[in-house]
Every structure is written in C-alpha cells, then in structure tokens.
Amino acid sequence: MAFTYLLEAKSLAWLWLAASVLSEIAGTVALRQSDGFSRVVPAVVAGACYVLAVWWMSLAMKHIGMGVTYAVWAGSGLGLTALLGAALFDEPLSGLRLAGLALVVAGVVTLSLAAPSPPAR
Questions:
Q1: pTM for the model
Q2: Collapsing DSSP states into helix, strand and coil, what is residue 117?
Q3: 62-100: per-residue pLDDT in tens?
Q4: 33-66 pLDDT, tens per residue?
Q5: Among residues 83, 74, 70, which one has the least CA distance to residue 29?
Q6: What is the model's pLDDT at position 120?
Q7: Residue ranges of the domains in the chain?
Q8: DSSP letters for 30-94
Q9: Distance between CA 4 and CA 96 in Å, rounded?
Q10: Per-residue CA distances from 11 to 16, 68, 105 (Å)
Q11: CA dist., res. 42 & res. 30, Å (int)
C-alpha cells in the first residue's frame, strides 16, 4: 500500500489497531441487529467485521506487543460498546458500570505505559 511509506511502522500499527477496534464494535452492533443470526444481512456484516478486526489486529501486533495490543483492543472495544449500547439501545449505564469502565481504561493505560516495544521486524 502506498500510504504505508508516509507513516512510521509503529504509527501505522496504532492505526491498524484503531481500525480493528472500530471494526469489532461495528461487528458487535451488527450482531445485536442480527437477532440471533436470524437476519441474514446483519449476520453477514457481523462476521465480516469480526474477520477484519482480527486481521487488522494481527497487523498491529507486528509492531505493538501482543499483551498491549489485546488489552487496548479488548478494553477499548468493551468501553465503547458499552457506551454505544447505552446510546443506541437504551441499555442501563449506572454509576457502578461507569466505575467499571474507568477501571478498564486505567488497566489499559497502565499496561500500555509499562510494556516495552517489541523489536522491529
């Protein structure tokens, strides 16, 4: 891809990770809309989004450690999905749930700050 030369590999890896998180979130929303896989289009969209999410996460892991990659992916996906659930589907978002989300964010930040970068390939 031509644009890969415009960014450093590490910066591009973070963009791949962001795309992976967004794809995972889109897949989860589509999964909710699939009504237990009884609606074909949302079910196919969910599957495609999850495949893209894992592929893009694998590209990010070339330059970001596996532990940090997965922590950021899972934590970001969890937090943003919970917020979208509240905004789009009227799912409850209590003070205790918000405290839990804050703990997830704190854990992801801590892991990201404490982890050394893997050697470049």
A1: 0.84
A2: coil
A3: 999 998 899 899 999 999 999 999 999 999 999 999 999
A4: 999 999 999 999 999 999 999 999 999 999 999 9
A5: 83
A6: 53
A7: 10-114
A8: HHHHTTTTTSHHHHHHHHHHHHHHHHHHHHHTTTS-HHHHHHHHHHHHHHHHHHHHHHHH-----
A9: 42
A10: 9, 15, 21
A11: 5
